[in-house]
Request: fold
Amino acid sequence: MNDSTPSNIIPAATVVVFRNPRRGTAPELLMVTRARQMSFAGGAAVFPGGRVDPADFALADTLSCDHDRDETAHRIAAVRETLEETGLAIGLREAVDADDARRARALLLEQGELAPVLTAMGWTLDLEALVPFARWNPKNERLPRVFDTRFYLADLGTGAVEVEIDATENTHLFWTSAADALAAAEAGDLSVIFPTRRNLERLAQYSSFADGRADALAHPVRTITPWMEQRDGRPWLAIPADAGYPIDGEPLDHASRG
Reply:
C-alpha cells in the first residue's frame, strides 16, 4: 500500500474466471459464497479474491514486467487468492493438472506466500493472462475497512477443473452464468452486494471470454466510487453512466452495500 493511501483503505484483487459452458451457450463464471461471519459481504456471493499482502509486493519487486509495482502486486494477489480460495491455478505459463494444483494449494496454505509455491512447482507467472476489467472503491460509512478492489478477467477455456472450498472464509463454490446469477438474486435465492450486481449485469452481455476481453479493452479501467442521488424523489445508489455498465444504479433501499 502506498504511504499516501488512507489506513482504512485495503488494496484487494478479484478475478472473474470464465469457462466454456457445460449447458446452454453463455459462459460460466466461478463464484464463492462468503461465510456469514465475515465482516465484509458476509453470506453474499462474490468472485474469488482478497487483499493484497506485503509478500505480493515483495514478489512483484523480483519480476520484470510491463506494469508498475502496484499493478503487478495486485495481479499476483489475484493468482494467489484464487488458488487459496478455490484450488484453481490461473495466470501461469505452464499447463497445470488437478493433482499439481492440489499440491500447490496445500503448499500455499502452509507457506502463506506465492513465491515459494512457484519455486517448488517450477511455475512461472503469466500475468498478462489477467485482463483488467474494473476497479471499485466504495465509500461505505458503516464499515471500518474499505476495499479498493481491482477486478480481472481470466479464461479457463475447457481445461480440467476441480475446485474445493476454503472453509475458513467461504461456504460454497459454484459455476453459473451471469444471467442465472442475476435471476437467482432477483428470486431471493442468492445474495449479491451492489458492485457484484453491477458487474454481473455487465458480464451478462458477453457470449464468450473474447467478448469480455474486448469490452474491457474498450473501457479503460477507472476507479468507481458509488454515490447517493435523488431520482424521481427516491434515493438511489449510482455509478458513472459512461463506465461500461448497462445499468448505472438502483434504489438505495434495494441495494446491498456489504
Notes: The chain has a mean pLDDT of 87. DSSP finds seven helices and eleven strands in the chain. The CA atoms of residues 135 and 222 lie 6 Å apart. The longest strand covers residues 9-19.
